[in-house]
Amino acid sequence: MDVTLSSIFTSIIIVAIIRWAVQLINWVWLRPKKLEKCLRNQGLNGNPYRILIGDMKDLIRFIKETQPKSIKISDDLAPRISHYYYQSIHKFGENSFVWFGPSPRLNIEDPELIKEILSKPDVFRKPAPDLGTIIVGGLLYLEGEKWAKHRKIVTPAFHLHKLKNTVLAIRLSCSSMLHKWEALVCSNERSCEIDVWPYLEDLSGDMISHTAFASSHEEGIRIFQLQKEQVKLSLQILQWSFIPGWRYFPTKANRSLKAISKEIQSLLREIQEHGNKNMGMSIEDVIEECKLFYFAGSETTSNLLVWTMVLLSQHQEWQARAREEVFQVFGKEEPTAEGLNHLKTVTMILQEVLRLYPPAPLTVRTCTETVKLKNMTLPAGVQMSVLIGQLHHDPKIWGDDSKEFKPQRFLQGVSGENSFIWFRPSLRLNVTDPELMKEILTKPGLFQKPHPDPIRGTIVGGLLFRENEKWTKHAKIINPAFHLEKVKVIS
Predict the structure, then answer these.
(1) In the prediction, which pLDDT does 151 show?
(2) What stretches of 67-156 show up as alpha helix (H) in DSSP?
């Protein structure tokens, strides 16, 4: 009996090992080679698959080589935004792919393909996170019903009447930073050089801490410092991040990441305990949303501000126009939420800065099933790198002056055909707040109707898709048909 049980147990272990070995061989070699053959048969090109690591070794080398190098304003930005992907496209053409470990990633910069990918979240999903969730979480990695639930809870924080209440706190944070600069200038008697970047980083953290969480400046700054350390450590283990569960290996970098993550969670838990506890989410979910809010909100804001200052110092004619507009709208009064809506020139400048220096130059999606994308048939498991940075500098879309700072591109807003991902992501918000609806419908100059797609354009047209002067002219001609005396005749 003992011999029989021992034999059965041994057989189970052998079968389990064989099954695990088959799965490992399939993941490391058979599946990648099958996907590579499928892509190459459709005219897609890239480096040959290298077992397990793919192109990760080259990618890490490119990151280490480019990070220490300084950049000049006159430099071409496209190669610097997504350096390795840019080199891949330059070498293999637009229809190319890179290997992120054993998974091929297509380089996507065609605006129509990007629109299709981002408009079908059920087919093109965010890749399963591993390393990324240590630094950020929340909506960035959620899908389906949980994404919809969190989005519904978080969205009211960005309703217009709530954002108006943050203007005072933001103004105080900005004033505090400017007072520090004035003190530095006064102490030197003459003009002096100020490194504004650390101050702008502190400013974005201070604004988020006060407006979103009503927490202290010190708590916010500490969270940002910890997240920066996480990013540096993450780059060290990026080469192996595609291996499932790699972050649980007891390496020095992983232990440091875990310790920092615990400290961030502790700080955010303390902040959350002082806030509203009836939010419809667990404490862990709230902490994940806070991590995303701090990381995404601080880095993007400070980057936008510093590049805006750099470009305005170069293009002083736009600096003068922006200053004149601010004085025209506010005079000597303090800025208000209502007045900010009238800063058209400032808005154009910020949009052009976001185009030239996108805060996140790419995003990744994965096919959940075999799908037809233009003339390509992509099997499940193929990933796509949506190259936002390359798209924003494409001369075929923006013209030969695509690398130049020209805010007048956005004179008519972002409702035209320009491929500006940050303001045209093919996503729609469901607006039910009465005050927000009134704000949107009473400002047709700011909130314009979307450009009709070919199908809707052939079914209906006229006033439904008209804007500005053409809408006014058509409405003036048509309205008399609905005057009361004519309606009476009809009845």
Answers:
(1) 85
(2) 78-81, 83-92, 111-118, 132-135, 144-154
